[in-house]
Amino acid sequence: MARLECVEQADAVAVRAAGDWVIAGLAPLEPQLRNLLDLRAKELHFDLSGLDRLDTAGAWLIHRTLKALESSGKQVRLDNASEDHAALIERVAANDKPHPAEPESGNAFVHVVEEVGETVIDAWRETRDLLGFFGLTVATLGRAVRQPGRVRLTSLVYHLEQVGLNAVPIVALISFLIGIVLAYQGATQLRQFGAEIFTVELVAISVLREIGILLTAIIVAGRSGSAFTAQIGSMKLHEEVDAMRALALDPMEMLVLPRVLALIIALPMLGFISAMMGLAGGAVMCWISLDISPGLYIERLSEGVSLSHFLIGIVKAPFFALMIGLIGCFEGLKVESSAESVGRLTTKSVVESIFMVIVVDAFFSIYFAVLGL
């Protein structure tokens, strides 16, 4: 039990602390310590020889009392403290610092300009680092081409199953529904001009050139790109990546290359499935709402839609896959030693992947438009 004994002398007061000064028993001591400020004596001697146990709360109480007494003009001396108790009190005193003042908000316009500038600088650094990571990936791929035995086929097949085969149901279902929506909305608008028969061409060109592969890439970015970041980030968090380096294993070959190659192989296949299911959804809606039979639908497709539309859409797939794979792995390797970092970078990976997919798609659209395709 914590105790405090005071002995008043002619020109000084001896204060003896005894017992266990731990957090559970300090409450009764508060009023006694405050009463020391009212003493007339100008000198106080704190004797800690009777202390049995002292924790951080007790050390803070002693330090706070000594500081208050000194501020009131009294001379205070600490006597007979053990090495452990004195070290704990000194450590508490060293951390007794005022909280930094909140910076002034300043001009709102200046603050906005600063935020924009910082964002631009961060984006530039991110782009620079990503380009460096792309170069490292290309160099790793070049070594794998020269030495095919360096490619981990087991890992490649596993990731092909994860990003390709397992994604078929969700890609097929969403593409089928998008085909239905396009056909329904297109027929509703074209019916006003008596041109609902052209709904077939509208659905086919939209799905084959843009919607099919773009929708597939966005699904893969949210599904597989985030998984890459979370998986590699978790390995980084548990120091498995460092363990690989300690065993002279290249994380680029072990983790990055199989995932990027699996995406480059799988995304064109998923894009093809998406295009076919989108056309199937359009066919169903045309049959229901426009009474266009599947035979007539296929005939209009063969007459009015050329193979070039499909090729223009599918040629984008490897580029989308490369961007998604690079960003997913890059953000995963940036994870620091906290679970919060994994969640933050996983979200960042998805946002950046979808953004870059749309940017690359816009570039291809302008490029093919300039070529007249």
Structural summary, described in words:
The protein has a four-stranded mixed beta sheet with strand order 1-2-3-4, covered by helices on one side. It has about 375 residues and is α/β, with parallel strands linked by helices. The model has no long low-confidence stretch (mean pLDDT about 85). It is elongated. It starts with a strand and ends with a helix. The chain has helices at about 30-35, 55-70, 85-95, 110-145, 155-165, 170-190, 200-235, 240-245, 250-290, 295-305, 305-315, 315-335, 340-370; strands at about 5-10, 15-20, 45-55, 75-80.
Rough shape?
elongated
Largest sheet: 4 strands, mixed
- Summarize the amount of helix as a percent range: over 70%
What is the SS-derived class? alpha/beta
Order of helices and strands: EEHEHEHHHHHHHHHHH
Query: What value does the average pLDDT take?
Result: 85
Domain unit count:
2
Number of strands: 4
Rg computed from alpha carbons, rounded to a whole number of angstroms? 35 Å
What is the distance, rounded to the nearest whole angstrom, between the alpha carbons of the first and last residues?
88 Å
Can you count the helices? 13
With strands numbered from the N-terminus, the spatial order across the biggest sheet is 1-2-3-4
Percentage of β-strand residues: 5-15%
Low-confidence stretches: none
